[in-house]
Design a protein that fits this description.
By secondary structure, the chain is an alpha+beta fold. It folds into two domains: 188 residues, no CATH class; 117 residues, no CATH class. It contains eight helices and 16 strands. The strands form five sheets. A five-stranded antiparallel sheet has the order 1-2-3-6-7, covered by helices on one side. Strands 8-15-16 form a three-stranded antiparallel sheet. The chain has a three-stranded antiparallel sheet with strand order 10-9-11, with no helix packed on it. Strand 15 and strand 16 form a beta hairpin. Helix 1 packs across helix 4.
C-alpha cells in the first residue's frame, strides 16, 4: 500500500515564495505598482528599514531592498518591502524597470495599519491590496485570480514533495522524459503550476498524474465534422484498432483527453465515448501528448483546465 502524505510546511513555504516573487514581478512590470531599490542608510527609508529589521532580525545584513508602493516615489505609502539578493535593472531614482524572481529574498513584509509584518496568505493579501488601489477590476475576477494562484502553490508544493523520488533522465532517454523531469513550470508566470478545472470539470487533486494521462476516443458522425488536412491519414492506427467499436464509413474517431470527456458529453451528446483507451506521455503543458499507437506524432488535445492563466482548449 502506498500512502500519500500532504506536502510539508517547508515545501508549502517554498512553493508560496515562488508564486509570490513571480506575482510581484508581474505587478511591477505591468506598472500596477512601482518599486524602488533602497539601501538601509537611505534618509527617505531608514525608519522603514529599521522597523522591518526589528520585526525580522535575520534581515539585518540585507544591503538592498525593494519598496513597493501604489505611486511612484511615495515611500510613505509603501505596502510591501522585499529584501533583495540580486539587483534589478533600475532607472531614474533607482526605480525598478526589470526584476527577476531570483532577485528576491525572504521573508517579504507587508504594511498593515502602519505596522510592518511578515507577509501571510500572499495571494489574497497582494491581490486584495492591488484591487484596493485599482477598484475598476471586478471583485469576482480578483477572487478567481486568487484561487488560481493558490491552486498553483498547492500543485507546486506537491511537485517539490516528489523531488528525488524518481530516477533522473539518462542521455539516451526521449525528450519527453527530460521535460517531465522538470520540477517547476514557467520561470516568471505566477500561475506556473496551476491545474484549475473549469466546470463541469471537477477539481483536480494534486495526486492526479497529469504527466501520464489516459487518452479516450470518441466516434463522431462525419456529417457533424469539418475536417482539414491529412487528419484521417494520421489517425489510421486508431481506426484499425477501433474497427469493432465504430463504423469508419459514417464516423470519425477523435482522441480526447480523459479530463475533457465530461465537457464533450455535456456539449456534444451525439459523440460516442468508446471503450478503448491508452495511457499517454504528456509534456509540461499537459495537453501535448505522445500516444503509444501514434508515437510518430505529438498530439495536442483540448483540456478544460486553467494553466498559466489560460484555458487550454483550442488556441
Amino acid at each position: 500500500m502506498v500512502v500519500i502524505t500532504a506536502p510539508s510546511e517547508a515545501f508549502q513555504e517554498r512553493a508560496a515564495n515562488g508564486m509570490t516573487s513571480r506575482l510581484l514581478c508581474t505587478i511591477l512590470h505591468s506598472r500596477l505598482a512601482f518599486g524602488h531599490v533602497v539601501r538601509p542608510d537611505s534618509e527617505q527609508t531608514r525608519e522603514i528599514i529599521e522597523s522591518v529589521v526589528k520585526t525580522v532580525p535575520s534581515l539585518s545584513k540585507t544591503e538592498n531592498w525593494c519598496i513597493v508602493a501604489k505611486q511612484n516615489d511615495t515611500y510613505s505609502e509603501a505596502s510591501f518591502i522585499i529584501p533583495l539578493r540580486g539587483l534589478p535593472v533600475q532607472g531614474v531614482n533607482n526605480k525598478v524597470e526589470v526584476i527577476d524572481p531570483e532577485d528576491f529574498d525572504f521573508p517579504i513584509l507587508h504594511q498593515q495599519n502602519g505596522i510592518w509584518k511578515i507577509l501571510q496568505s500572499p495571494a489574497s493579501t497582494i491581490m486584495n491590496t492591488i484591487h484596493a488601489w485599482l477598484p475598476k477590476y471586478s471583485k469576482s475576477r480578483v477572487q478567481q485570480i486568487i484561487l488560481e494562484l493558490e491552486n498553483s502553490v498547492e500543485h507546486q508544493a506537491h511537485a517539490y514533495s516528489l523531488e528525488g523520488t524518481k530516477e533522473p533522465p539518462k542521455l539516451g532517454d526521449h525528450s519527453m522524459v527530460w521535460e517531465q523531469s522538470l520540477i517547476e513550470g514557467h520561470p516568471t508566470h505566477p500561475m506556473h503550476k496551476c491545474r484549475f478545472g473549469v466546470p463541469p470539470m471537477p477539481h483536480i487533486p494534486v495526486e492526479v498524474d497529469m504527466l501520464h494521462p489516459i487518452v479516450n476516443f470518441v466516434a463522431v458522425q462525419r456529417e457533424d465534422l469539418r475536417i482539414t488536412g491529412a487528419f484521417e491519414k494520421a489517425i489510421e492506427p486508431f481506426r484499425d484498432i477501433l474497427i469493432d467499436e465504430h463504423d469508419p464509413t459514417t464516423e470519425v474517431v477523435i482522441p480526447v483527453h480523459s479530463y475533457q470527456v465530461v465537457n464533450i458529453t455535456a456539449l456534444f451528446p451525439e459523440a460516442r465515448i468508446l471503450k478503448y483507451e491508452e495511457r499517454a506521455e504528456a509534456s509540461l503543458n499537459l495537453r501535448t501528448v505522445q500516444i503509444p499507437s501514434l508515437e510518430q506524432y505529438h498530439v495536442k488535445l483540448s483540456c478544460g483546465i486553467i494553466l498559466s492563466g489560460g484555458i487550454r482548449t483550442i488556441t
